[in-house]
Amino acid sequence: MQTTRTVLVTGGNRGIGFAIAAEFLAQGHRVAVTARSGDGPTGSMTVRADVTDADSIDAAFTSVEAELGPVEVLVANAGITRDTLLLRMSEDDFTSVIDTNLSGAFRVVKRASKGMLKARFGRIVLVSSVVGLLGSAGQVNYSASKSGLVGLARSLTRELGSRNITANVVAPGFVETEMTAVLPAEQQAEYLKSIPAGRYATPEEVARVVVWLASDDASYISGAVIPVDGGLGMGH
Length: 236
Description:
This is Beta-ketoacyl-ACP reductase. The chain has one domain (6-226): Rossmann fold. The chain is α/β, with parallel strands linked by helices. Helix 1 (15-26) crosses helix 8 (203-213), helix 2 (54-68) runs parallel beside helix 3 and helix 3 packs parallel to helix 5. 45% of the residues lie in helices and 16% in strands.
């Protein structure tokens, strides 16, 4: 029987984040999500927060702690894309993606770690992407932000590992979400050819791996990058 935990998922109002929150709820945990708009799944607590703003993160954590108790499991999932080729990419296209996807993870991890150190327990899961290590044309900003999460998790493991706090990275490949649904059919067909499994992941398949990493069964795994990509990024 797994222990019931207090879980916070950033960007939990749609896509993979929503599925992660729903899976934690299904397994009996107390779940809060941060969202700039919209809400998490029924049964979760939704708090307004922007991961680029440390004050809003602090306020969100304070609300969750008052309602559900200290955050024991943090899933840093909030992310944006601003895809374009390098020579067309503006300074703002680059820095805004880094600030949300990488610096945003740093901000929420820093705030969560206070309670985790006090409790001598914590599970940190950073949602990266196959392109973090595989690379992707038109995504130098996004892939840089997602590979940065690997260094973040591994340094956290060295700093916090002796306090029973783990930090791991989940690297999804192509997933059936609103973001992939808008791609042209020929582009989708091209992507499918490169995936050994021959299909996209469902958000639930990613969510179940995240929930497992936060469970007692994964207590000796830290600093790992777990691909959920149907074989797309093999060797990375």
